[in-house]
Amino acid sequence: MEILKDIKLQINNVEFSYEKTQILKGVSLIIETGSFVSILGPSGCGKTTLFRIICGLLSVNSGSILLDNFDVTHLLPGKRNIGVIFQEAGLFTNMTAIKNIEYVLKNRHGFKNDYKKRAITALDEIGMLEHKDKYPSQLSFGQQQRVAIARSMALKPSILLLDEPLSALDADVRFSLRNELKRIQKQTNMTMLYVTHDQEEALSLSDKVIIFNDGIIQQIDKPLNIIQNPVNNFVNDFVVKNIKIKFEAFSWLAEKGFSYEKQYI
After folding, report:
1. 80-102 pLDDT, tens per residue?
2. Exposure string (b/e) for 34-57, b if CB count within 10 Å is 16 or more?
């Protein structure tokens, strides 16, 4: 039996229905402190609904949510000490990068005394300090998302939730920011829960991956175990076959003499 570390987030038999349609069907999971966990599934499978329930944006029909062993099931979003990153950075357009971070810090209890220092540190950790005086309109989408991540991290949340934050970015920017996100997570030991429909993204980033479909968890496991031992046809088709298709495409290019390093470095 695998020995778990400290439990950061525990979801117990959560159910949610919209009108007469049941979206989540008795979802239970445990996320360990300091881990990077992805919820992977196709569009419409219920993963974003689960994300919004954890944030407090939706209320459960039944079940419970524990954060740091404290029941937050019925707490308002602002009372949960959860950081949230969405597809859109959501920066204040009339504020510079540094002011965006300072604003949320000085308006949050416990951060008022050193909010300027914390804002500088947050931007430095994400590699955006040289852009601190730029407005969102002067930043690329990738840079805006970096500032949004820095803003959430500066508040020292108990857990950081990310809902497909890289999906709107170009492939090269997405790859770069993905690596940066993993570096920051390891450096700060921040617990991160990442929602995505991208198999490669989930498998490359995560300590564990939660495969989700039709409102039900299909498999929770380490990436390599999922590839080697898919528990059912859905996991095999959605994850393993898709990864093999990508791998075979790159193998075909290699057989034709294509070298990424030769072409672009």
Report:
1. 999 999 888 889 999 999 999 99
2. bbbbbbbbeeebbbbbbbbbbbbe
Nearest residue to 239 (alpha-carbon basis) of 210, 205, 207: 210
Using the structure block, give the residue that is written with the tokens 């380490």. 222
pTM assigned to the model: 0.86
Give the residue from 161, 118, 170 showing the smallest Cα distance to 141: 170
CA distances from 165 to 21, 69, 177, 196 (A): 27, 27, 10, 9
How far from chain centre, in Å, is Cα 97?
Answer: 21
Residue 257 DSSP code: T
Angle formed at CA 25 by CA 76 and CA 84, multiple of 5 degrees: 35
Q: Give the residue carrying structure tokens 């196709």.
A: 42
Residue 222 is inside which H or E element, if any?
none
> What is the average pLDDT across 123-133?
91
Q: Quote the CA–CA distance of 173 and 70 in Å, as a whole number.
A: 37
- pLDDT-above-90 percentage for the chain: 59
The answer to whether the CB of 80 falls within 8 A of the CB of 56 is: yes
Is the CB of residue 162 less than 8 Å from the CB of residue 151?
no
Q: How confident is the model at residue 109, as a pLDDT?
A: 74
Q: How far is CA 15 from CA 20, 77, 184, in A?
A: 13, 19, 33
Contact by Cβ (8 Å): 91, 147: yes
Q: Residue 67: how many CB atoms within 10 A of its CB? A: 23
Residues 6+ apart with CB under 8 A from 99: 92
How far apart CA 250 and CA 45 sit, in angstroms, is 29
